[in-house]
């Protein structure tokens, strides 16, 4: 006869195991968002000026429909405010129709050119247009293709489709385009940047549906900015806490067989570090400029801030193998007595001899996990990218 205490322990473990399995299955959390009760088709509800944002549908290469915003910079909006206010449409336009909107025309003519908080932040940068889309299954974007859920292959297809739309449909040059991702978006951004550097890379999913217009690789983007990046998903889940509270795999570290069993069943592994290494190798081989910025907040309660340097260090080693490359490293002591560039907690940078290829990591003191992407450090990273493009820094 099994003692009652053993039965209780068994059922406790079973329930906890079920909860952990559920959390693993819901790793994308695509239906949990702050704007659930707000109308994303009316950007004014999120603090934008009337007509500043054009909502539109973008069709991906595999026929999903992504809900997108084109956010005008405030300086451009101010110059055309009356015309923009009078041209506001009630319906969300299709991607083909978007090209004919006033916002798209201003984008083409502007040669300089906590989620909504970052879009408002970016709109304050002169001549900086922001194009942002909900990935498939997120917000009101569709999931028509099997398995009717977000997947690694699907989300990367979305990222590639968005950038292809900018480069080919809107005819906006890569040299005036910055790719910016936060949290899971850093993995999508890294994979997308790799695609436009080496579309045949073995590190890209085999099931990608390529855009109608073949990628002109390699593309020299003005910058790739990654806020709260991670090396790969199985490694991240060992320390990740949902909303900084509920751990995923860390409670199982004393039970390695169970932890390894669950980790081995993670289908979407998101090998971001490996893809960044492949990007650097491909770009170096073709002498293509690239500038990668990794940002992380020290008070991030979901992703340990140490991950930022775990991502950076192998990239630094790879780049230092190139003749003439050099690196700098600055770190604030526990007493806070040492000066660190930009006031960060830690700052490291590696660059080639002429500075045409750079990777930098900046660990800042504050910003948390989601909110920090709308703070000054990301805004400054974008501004520095434009200065670099303009030859000012």
From TrEMBL:
<dbReference type="InterPro" id="IPR029058">
    <property type="entry name" value="AB_hydrolase_fold"/>
</dbReference>
<protein>
    <recommendedName>
        <fullName>Alpha/beta-hydrolase</fullName>
    </recommendedName>
</protein>
């Amino acid at each position: 006869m099994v003692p009652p205490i053993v039965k209780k322990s068994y059922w406790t473990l079973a329930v906890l195991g079920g909860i952990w399995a559920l959390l693993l299955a819901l790793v994308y959390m695509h239906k949990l968002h702050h704007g659930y009760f707000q109308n994303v088709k009316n950007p004014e509800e999120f603090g934008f000026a009337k007509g500043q944002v054009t909502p539109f549908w973008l069709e991906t290469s595999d026929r999903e429909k992504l809900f997108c915003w084109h956010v005008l910079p405030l300086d451009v909006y101010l110059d055309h405010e009356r015309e923009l206010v009078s041209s506001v449409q009630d319906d969300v336009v299709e991607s083909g129709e978007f090209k004919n909107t006033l916002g798209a025309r201003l984008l083409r003519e502007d040669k300089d050119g906590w989620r909504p908080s970052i879009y408002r932040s970016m709109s304050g940068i002169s001549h900086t247009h922001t194009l942002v889309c909900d990935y498939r299954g997120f917000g009101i974007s569709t999931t028509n293709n099997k398995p009717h859920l977000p997947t690694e292959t699907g989300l990367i297809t979305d990222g590639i489709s968005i950038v292809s739309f900018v480069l080919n449909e809107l005819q906006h040059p890569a040299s005036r385009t910055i790719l910016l991702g936060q949290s899971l978006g850093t993995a999508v951004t890294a994979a997308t940047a790799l695609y436009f550097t080496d579309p045949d890379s073995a590190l890209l999913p085999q099931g990608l549906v390529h855009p109608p217009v073949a990628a002109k690789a390699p593309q020299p983007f003005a910058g790739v900015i990654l806020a709260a990046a991670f090396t790969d998903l199985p490694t991240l889940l060992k320390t990740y806490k949902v909303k900084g509270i509920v751990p995923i795999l860390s409670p199982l570290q004393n039970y390695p067989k169970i932890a390894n069993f669950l980790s081995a069943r993670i289908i979407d592994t998101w090998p971001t570090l490996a893809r960044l290494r492949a990007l650097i190798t491909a770009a170096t081989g073709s002498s293509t400029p690239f500038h990668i910025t990794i940002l992380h907040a020290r008070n991030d309660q979901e992703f340990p801030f140490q991950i930022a340097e775990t991502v950076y260090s192998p990239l630094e080693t790879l780049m230092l193998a190139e003749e003439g490359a050099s690196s700098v490293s600055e770190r604030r002591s526990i007493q806070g007595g040492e000066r660190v560039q930009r006031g960060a907690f830690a700052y490291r940078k590696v660059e080639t001899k002429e500075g045409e290829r750079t990777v930098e990591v900046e660990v800042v003191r504050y910003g948390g996990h989601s909110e920090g992407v709308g703070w000054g450090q990301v805004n400054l990273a974008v501004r520095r990218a434009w200065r670099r493009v303009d030859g000012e820094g």
